[in-house]
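Moderator note: this is an archived Q&A kept for reference. The question asked for a predicted structure of one protein chain; the sequence and the answer are reproduced below.
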Amino acid sequence: MARGKLRRRLQRLDQENLSARHDAALVEVLTIPEDFVSPARRIAMRVVYALGALFAAVAIVYLDRHGYRDIESAPDANNPLSLLDCLYYATVSLSTTGYGDITPVTDSARLINVLVITPLRVAFLIVLIGTTVETLTTQSRQALKIQRWRKSVRNHTVVVGYGTKGRTAVTAMVSDGVAPGNIVVVEQNDFALERAKAAGLVTVRGDGTKAEALRLASVQHAETIIVAANSDSDSVLVTLTARELAPKAKIIAAVREAENQHLLKQSGADTTVVTSETAGRLLGIAKQTPSVVEVMEDLLTPDAGFAIAERPVTAKEVGASPRHMKEIVLGVVRNGQLLRVDLPEADAVELGDKLLVIKTANSED
């Protein structure tokens, strides 16, 4: 009964049907980051393309030089064109100047002019007016990138909401080695979207509570979904929708109030973080022992100092106690469950376990 209601709700959310649109219609919604290319390099590239088209035309004319006649220099002769004549003809032809002193006279030369020289002339003109053409073709280029991205994206991370929580989560992931291009941000706020684009992230302009916005972010192929919405009600709805679309993905959700934590769990969240209580605890600890708060912040900041990391148990460590290892072990992850080091089950690590350890931020894993 509840699942039937959920399906009907998802159908209502699908009214926009963004994923069914043509890629060109998604240019203003889905943005794929691209590398910066300086204006000088763009101009240099256009010059290279123009010279390439010119030399290609010269080569084609030179190979069929017996099919052309230079009326001005030898109107009655059937002498083939020189290399300089071919360069001259290609230049005036591609630039559409066309003085008419050198003309194709054989059928093969005329056919080559129609099938090859004319397209080269068009390409040459496009390069010359590249700035205007580039503006006109931006949408097409972005649509092609969207098409390629949607076909190839797999095992990425989707972040719903790019406020303080979402932005901090992305910063932590990038610091841990996650490629920015492998993170997709779903957000409606224009300022937040611009910040995400500037960070090199893939962005989707849309409401994260709606199935179509999540589907456009390829949430069904995502490895991890981070829910950082501005309200607990939105977080529950995003989590419920994401779980329906991606049954196997790992969902991590932030919740403001602890009494709403069970709603996120029921909606399908694997891990929940209570932001208000966490901040409150740190504020309370800071009253008596502010240095403890500094250590906690240091552990949660992977760029410098100490950091919490997860690593697999090696074959030599099997059977050892995590309390007697050189590293400081905080916990043992076995079959997806976290075991404290003081529990009897964690006294001897097993092959396949993972250890939560404290390491220096710049040390090797």
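Archived answer notes: The first helix runs from residue 2 to 13.
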